[in-house]
């Protein structure tokens, strides 16, 4: 019986070898996947036992970790000015994961990034518990503060984005209404779940990041794109354009496209059409250019492209523009045209920066736990949206536009270049979204801004971009110019 | 393999055989040192105060296994010197892990105190078996008795009302009120092994008689296939009545391997595996709990559907192992308590988490060594029953390890056996100590010097020699 016994011995060895092979598979090859699985409580507990780094803007701590008494959740995340910075920092929750910078820069904040590998090793030898690095933002706290106050003091729903057109640094990114990420950081499951549900059930959607992930009809602010397309295709600033109070929509029985208030346009040239925001002029121009040229011009400004700032920015889009009527309406930013506030700020910034669009970025630098710099932000050219000449032409038109824009908050010694928009969006009460995109100072721009106030703000159907959005944009610019932007 | 029990004292007349008991004692001390160090590491990393008491535990451990050693010295002096230390090492590491899980207040605890009692009772049983079973061959005489008692024990929980016998969806237990509960299947395993070994040894000629040749295979006669069919139906019966995949798999595997060893014919393995596959398909189609386990095995990372998340346990276990990685989190520094039933079914994943792949592999090798020492005794022992019985015992250990370790690492579907000598649980501990005692008894017989052979008569001149019947070597 020894022969089968020896064979059984071999079989037993083979069984153990199989077990070892499989254990190797689980613990070496499959390990990454398992460790990164969202349901892995061990990874989560481990993270909560470690001091996470800070999120900083101009020396202010926006998010930090505070020691608790709890032996398991040794640190709790704290947001010094929660609702104000929520669109930027995002939240970091044991139960609901994270978003915003907390997610985008997780490996630095968590201390697991490769650039921190050497420090982790030295911590291991010196017996220090590992800590996360810090992330310094490009945000200008003064502008952020003003933008948020301007939106919330009137109870508006909307968003403000401000950029430095020269570098693409994001100076302000604000949503209203906002939420307090501190609500989600507790280690009490029931408490956090209740608050999470409340935030998610809120009809005002305070957790929606309107600045980057909501798309809106741009209304007249889109005329900047139509103008760019026109200038690239033979139009001059003083080219004569349509001035009629209303024009028929081609291909429809009796539908017409009116100017604002149903008036004849006061200016006959392209420049004046921008200044007075004449709908009929731009509808005609769009119809003349055709969908392809309009699309090209928009693509040059970044429409339809993926963008990480490092959060993902929703794609802006022109829609189908299937027939001539749609084309007419698209030319004035209606119909299916959709943009994010970020995209609109980028359009203004590209025009301000001699036609060169810089990649928007939120992170100025990443730092090791001892605050030594790991990596620093370098401005990155995204694309040449228009030639410098055309950019200057559009700038001059926007200066004219600002002159004809009502609303308060004008700054006496600073010239602003701007464009307003009043976007209908099928609201039954006809309360349009008010837009304002601008940059300043016009001759040497350091700030570009986009403001949207949803559903007419406090003015309802009477609202225009000039009346509700422009004052906010001007205040933000003022804060930036004075507060050392 | 040459027998190490070499004769050294040829000149002194009576042959002196190395018993290697000193080696056993030395290895036991070695195991005690490892276990005590492991305990020390756990205490330090769990921020417990380190006192001299720790060494008392180590000493107590040594005393307990020292007693077992003395029993071996007395009643089985020629037994294999490595088997007992290997068991002591596995058991000790298991105790340290349970203590560590107690400190973390893992689900179902505390375990350690109970497990120490089980270990002690196990060692007492071990000593008793060595004392009272003087010769393993006597067991063969009780083959049928063992078989009947074993079957009865096995069937008992399935026939008892669920309130007494059911836990976690399987009917394997007999609750004895405050005394806790026992799993009669664990003991039935050994009794049935005795039955099969004695039955097969007496009937093996029958099985080797060739039946019809068909498709290039010598098929056994239908009536000779009865034992396989009975074993197969038995294991299906266990699945149906007791919902216990592990025990079912274990029995079927043991019968198959013992048949193979007894008959030396691979056709039994082939037949058995075919029947097994058939059984699997039938079980999969008939029983929900089998389907759940198979689906969990196929994709442990599948998202939960609705309220039920059958993959949770396996997934958390796998995540623990993944977290441990190659070198582990260190004893006491992982989170094995996050896995449900970390102390029983999933103790191997707790080892994988805290001692890493390296530790888990070392443990597998310790088990492998233990099985190989068992098989070595089977090879060396002279009687067929002993060979078959020892082979069966060693294979039982192997299959238990394979089924449980394969289950928690996702190699095969989870079946709910426990890692021998490690996992929390009394019945398994006691039964496995009996198993080891029997293995030592056989290895003692294998290495015991034979009664001095009669001096060979001088060979007669070839012309006058008788015709001798020479047995064909096996």
UniProtKB/TrEMBL annotation, chain A:
<dbReference type="InterPro" id="IPR012338">
    <property type="entry name" value="Beta-lactam/transpept-like"/>
</dbReference>
<keyword id="KW-0808">Transferase</keyword>
<dbReference type="GO" id="GO:0016757">
    <property type="term" value="F:glycosyltransferase activity"/>
</dbReference>
<keyword id="KW-0732">Signal</keyword>
<dbReference type="InterPro" id="IPR054120">
    <property type="entry name" value="PBPA_dimer"/>
</dbReference>
<dbReference type="GO" id="GO:0071555">
    <property type="term" value="P:cell wall organization"/>
</dbReference>
<feature type="domain" description="Penicillin-binding protein transpeptidase">
    <location>
        <begin position="158"/>
        <end position="477"/>
    </location>
</feature>
<dbReference type="InterPro" id="IPR036138">
    <property type="entry name" value="PBP_dimer_sf"/>
</dbReference>
<keyword id="KW-0328">Glycosyltransferase</keyword>
<dbReference type="GO" id="GO:0005886">
    <property type="term" value="C:plasma membrane"/>
</dbReference>
<protein>
    <submittedName>
        <fullName>Peptidoglycan glycosyltransferase</fullName>
        <ecNumber>2.4.1.129</ecNumber>
    </submittedName>
</protein>
<feature type="domain" description="Penicillin binding protein A dimerisation">
    <location>
        <begin position="52"/>
        <end position="135"/>
    </location>
</feature>
<dbReference type="GO" id="GO:0008658">
    <property type="term" value="F:penicillin binding"/>
</dbReference>
<dbReference type="GO" id="GO:0071972">
    <property type="term" value="F:peptidoglycan L,D-transpeptidase activity"/>
</dbReference>
<dbReference type="Pfam" id="PF21922">
    <property type="entry name" value="PBP_dimer_2"/>
</dbReference>
<dbReference type="InterPro" id="IPR050515">
    <property type="entry name" value="Beta-lactam/transpept"/>
</dbReference>
<dbReference type="InterPro" id="IPR001460">
    <property type="entry name" value="PCN-bd_Tpept"/>
</dbReference>
<dbReference type="Pfam" id="PF00905">
    <property type="entry name" value="Transpeptidase"/>
</dbReference>
<feature type="signal peptide">
    <location>
        <begin position="1"/>
        <end position="25"/>
    </location>
</feature>
């Amino acid at each position: 019986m020894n022969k089968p016994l020896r064979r059984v011995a071999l079989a037993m060895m083979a069984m153990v070898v199989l077990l070892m092979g499989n254990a190797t598979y689980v613990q070496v090859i499959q390990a990454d996947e398992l460790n990164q699985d969202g349901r892995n409580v061990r990874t989560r507990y481990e993270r909560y036992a470690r001091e996470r780094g800070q999120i900083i803007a101009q020396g202010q701590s926006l998010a930090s970790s505070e020691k608790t008494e709890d032996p398991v959740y040794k640190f709790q995340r704290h947001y010094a000015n929660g609702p104000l910075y929520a669109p930027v920092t995002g939240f970091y929750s044991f139960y609901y994961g994270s978003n915003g910078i907390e997610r985008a820069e997780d490996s630095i904040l968590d201390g697991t990034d490769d650039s921190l590998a050497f420090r982790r090793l030295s911590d291991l030898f010196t017996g220090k518990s590992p800590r996360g690095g810090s992330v310094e933002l490009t945000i200008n706290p003064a502008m952020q503060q003003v933008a948020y106050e301007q939106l919330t003091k009137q109870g508006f729903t909307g968003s403000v984005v401000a950029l430095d057109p020269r570098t693409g640094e994001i100076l302000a990114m604000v949503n209203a209404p906002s939420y307090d990420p501190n609500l989600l950081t507790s280690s009490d499951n029931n408490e956090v779940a209740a608050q999470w549900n409340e935030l998610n059930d809120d009809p005002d959607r305070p957790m929606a990041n309107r600045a980057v992930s909501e798309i809106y009809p741009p209304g007249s602010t889109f005329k900047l794109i139509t103008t760019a397309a026109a200038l690239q295709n033979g139009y001059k600033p003083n080219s004569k354009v349509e001035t009629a109070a209303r024009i028929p929509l081609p291909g429809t029985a009796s539908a017409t496209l009116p100017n604002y208030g149903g008036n004849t346009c006061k200016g006959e040239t392209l420049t004046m059409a921008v200044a007075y925001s004449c709908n009929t002029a731009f509808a005609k121009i769009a119809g003349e250019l055709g969908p392809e040229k309009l699309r090209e011009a928009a693509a040059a400004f970044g429409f339809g492209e993926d963008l990480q700032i490092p959060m993902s920015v929703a794609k802006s889009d022109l829609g189908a523009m299937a027939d001539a009527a749609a084309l007419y309406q698209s030319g004035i930013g209606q119909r299916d045209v959709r943009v994010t506030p970020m995209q609109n700020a980028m359009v203004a910034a590209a025009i301000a920066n001699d036609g060169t669009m810089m990649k928007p970025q939120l992170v100025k630098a990443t730092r090791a736990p001892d605050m030594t710099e790991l990596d620093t932000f370098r401005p990155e050219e995204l694309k040449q949206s228009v030639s410098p000449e055309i950019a200057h032409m559009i700038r001059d038109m926007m200066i004219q536009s600002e002159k004809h824009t009502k609303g308060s908050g004008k700054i006496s010694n600073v010239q602003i270049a701007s464009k307003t928009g009043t976007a209908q969006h099928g609201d039954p009460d006809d309360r349009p979204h008010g837009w304002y995109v601008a940059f300043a100072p016009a001759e040497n721009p350091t700030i570009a801004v986009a403001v949207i106030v949803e559903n007419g703000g406090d003015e309802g159907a009477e609202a225009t971009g000039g009346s509700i959005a422009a004052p906010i944009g001007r205040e933000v610019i003022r804060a930036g110019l004075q507060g050392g932007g | 393999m040459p027998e190490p029990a070499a004769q050294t004292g040829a000149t002194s007349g009576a042959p002196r055989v190395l018993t290697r008991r000193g080696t056993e004692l030395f290895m036991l001390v070695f195991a005690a040192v490892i276990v005590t160090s492991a305990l020390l590491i756990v205490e330090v990393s769990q921020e417990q105060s380190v006192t001299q008491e720790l060494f008392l535990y180590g000493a107590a451990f040594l005393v307990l296994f020292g007693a077992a050693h003395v029993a071996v010295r007395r009643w089985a002096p020629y037994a294999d010197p490595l088997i007992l230390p290997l068991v002591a090492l596995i058991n000790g590491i298991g105790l340290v892990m349970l203590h560590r899980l107690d400190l973390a207040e893992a689900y179902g605890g505390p375990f350690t105190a109970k497990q120490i009692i089980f270990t002690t009772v196990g060692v007492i049983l071990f000593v008793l078996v060595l004392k009272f079973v003087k010769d393993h061959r006597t067991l063969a005489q009780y083959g049928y008795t063992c078989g009947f008692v074993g079957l009865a024990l096995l069937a008992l929980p399935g026939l008892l009302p669920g309130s007494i016998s059911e836990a976690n969806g399987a009917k394997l237990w007999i609750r004895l009120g405050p005394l806790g509960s026992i799993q009669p299947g664990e003991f039935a395993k050994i009794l049935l092994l005795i039955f099969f070994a004695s039955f097969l040894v007496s009937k093996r000629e029958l099985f080797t008689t060739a039946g019809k040749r068909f498709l290039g295979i010598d098929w056994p006669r239908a009536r000779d296939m009865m034992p396989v069919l009975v074993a197969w139906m038995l294991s299906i019966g266990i699945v149906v009545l007791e919902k216990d995949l592990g025990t079912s798999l274990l029995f079927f595997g043991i019968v198959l391997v013992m048949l193979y060893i007894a008959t030396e014919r691979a056709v039994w393995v082939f037949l058995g595996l075919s029947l097994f596959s058939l059984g699997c398909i039938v079980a999969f189609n008939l029983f929900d709990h089998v389907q759940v386990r198979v689906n969990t095995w196929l994709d442990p990372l599948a998202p939960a559907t609705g309220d039920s998340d059958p993959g949770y346990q396996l997934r958390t276990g796998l995540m623990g192992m993944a977290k441990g990685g190659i070198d582990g989190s260190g004893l006491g520094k992982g989170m094995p308590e996050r896995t449900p039933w970390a102390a029983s079914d999933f103790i191997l994943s707790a080892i994988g988490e805290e001692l890493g792949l390296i530790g888990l592999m070392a443990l597998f090798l310790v088990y492998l060594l233990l099985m190989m020492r068992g098989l070595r005794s089977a090879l060396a022992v002279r009687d067929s029953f002993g060979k078959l019985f020892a082979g069966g015992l060693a294979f039982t250990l192997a299959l238990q390890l394979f089924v449980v370790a394969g289950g928690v690492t996702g190699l095969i579907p989870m079946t709910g056996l426990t890692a021998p000598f490690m996992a929390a649980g009394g019945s398994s501990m006691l039964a496995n100590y009996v198993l080891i005692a029997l293995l030592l008894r056989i290895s003692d017989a294998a290495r015991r010097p034979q009664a001095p052979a009669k001096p060979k008569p001088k060979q007669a001149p070839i012309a006058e020699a008788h015709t001798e019947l020479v047995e064909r070597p096996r």
